[in-house]
Design goal:
It is a single chain. The chain contains nine helices and five strands. It is an alpha+beta fold. The protein has a domain of about 120 residues: PAS domain (Beta-Lactamase, 2-Layer Sandwich), CATH 3.30.450.20. The protein has a five-stranded antiparallel sheet with strand order 2-1-5-4-3, with helices on both faces. One of its GO terms (molecular function) is DNA binding. InterPro entries: Cro/C1-type_HTH, HTH_RsaL-like, Lambda_DNA-bd_dom_sf, PAS, PAS-like_dom_sf.
Length: about 200
């Protein structure tokens, strides 16, 4: 279960044992253990808390004045093998490199990526285009991509809600390193159908 990996990675990023991390989150140690083992999934409120904690971890690691080459990249590298977090290297339009988690998230294979067939603008539904333009301006002006939510279109057509956060690796040519968290499991459950 993806949430088990999310909780375990966040706890390790904070250098905490389960009991100390449980105090930070506001649950008991047994709950953290169940989350990490996949025996229980965090509820919507704790999911939001964990995602906010992840975003804060990235921002603290990056620092407002840290050089880009020493900022988000070590943290990104430490997360690259996690299945729940996609990692990408992109320019103004194309995804140049991606880990397997990102490709699986959207249903593409490495051959498509290597053939230059992953255009992040084309993968983005039109309703998110304005937010993408704002984020691109922000990264060009500040070197940082603060966490924001959007969606990509999966190869089979459905939308995949994601949280993006990243850093500019180089300005010329533009290279942006970003982590992409699949939020599909984060949506609150649908209410039960009304009685007939």
């Amino acid at each position: 279960m993806k949430w088990g990996e999310i909780v375990r990675t966040l706890r390790r990023l904070h250098g905490a044992k389960q009991d100390a991390f449980s105090q930070l989150i506001g649950v008991n140690q047994a709950t953290i253990s169940r989350w990490e083992s996949g025996g229980q999934m965090p509820g919507p409120a704790h999911q939001a808390l964990l995602l906010n904690l992840y975003s804060q971890s990235l921002q603290q690691d990056c620092g407002h004045h840290a050089p880009v080459e020493t900022a988000a990249l070590p943290l990104a590298a430490s997360l690259v093998h996690c299945r729940f977090i996609g990692m990408i290297l992109a320019d103004e339009r194309r995804i140049l490199q991606a880990n397997d988690a990102f490709l699986d998230m959207l249903g593409y294979n490495r051959a498509t990526l290597e053939d230059g067939g992953l255009d992040w603008q084309a993968l983005t539904p039109p309703e998110f285009a304005a937010e993408d333009r704002r984020a691109l301006r922000q990264v060009l002006e500040t070197g940082r991509l603060v966490p924001f939510r959007k969606a990509y279109r999966h190869k089979n057509g459905h939308l995949v809600p994601v949280l993006l956060v990243g850093e500019m690796e180089t300005a010329s040519p533009l290279r942006i390193v970003a982590s992409v968290i699949d939020l599909s499991e984060c949506r609150p459950p649908l209410p039960p159908p009304a009685p007939a």
